[in-house]
Write a structure and sequence with these properties.
171 residues; alpha+beta; 4-stranded antiparallel β-sheet; two-stranded antiparallel ribbon; 4 helices
């Protein structure tokens, strides 16, 4: 099918197939051969509170977006707030219902407070929170736009692939 936007996290329009899988990274990845195990991807360390009331991620200092900017805890918080906000698709909002909030502890450390103290919530925040640069939302004047107004701007991601050539309606 064709596409008319580059923001795969909103409801209106169609984004290119495979964009999320190929371009956006998460804080951690599930192990392919160990049940109930995740390993850091953008994160170099994870700390789970003994009562599972929170999970803290320390970002790898080598984690970078395609434009060369470092991935920061503020970018992670922006991603979380965007995906749980009213302008995101309900699929993403409902996935993070068990997370009550995100707190930036320092430029490379973020803590997620959990309302649902389950392993499912821990794994969801680690492996389903797609991280993108907060600069993606900046308009021509340098002011942030609403999440659903980010339509034709190419995403600033950390994944292995970026969008190269574009021929709208074709490729």
């Amino acid at each position: 099918t064709s596409f008319d936007k580059y923001n795969p996290f909103t409801t209106r329009g169609n984004s290119p197939g495979g964009l999320v899988i190929l371009s956006f990274e998460t804080l951690a990845v599930l192990s392919a051969d160990e049940p109930q195990t995740m390993y850091g991807l953008l994160a170099e360390a994870m700390l789970i509170a003994p009562d599972k009331s929170s999970v803290t991620f320390r970002l790898n200092p080598k984690a970078r977006f395609a434009n060369g900017d470092p991935v920061t805890a503020h970018d992670v918080k922006y991603s979380f707030e965007s995906l749980t906000g009213k302008f995101a698709a309900p699929t993403f909002r409902s996935a993070f219902e068990g997370v009550s909030g995100a707190v930036v502890l320092d430029p490379r450390t973020i803590r997620f407070d959990l309302a649902d103290r389950s392993n499912d919530t821990l794994f969801t925040i680690g492996t389903n929170l797609y991280v993108f640069s907060r600069n993606w939302a900046l308009g021509p004047e340098g002011k942030p736009r609403k999440f659903d107004e980010i339509v034709t701007e190419l995403p600033i991601t950390s994944g292995p692939y970026t969008i190269g050539a574009i021929d709208p309606g074709r490729r």
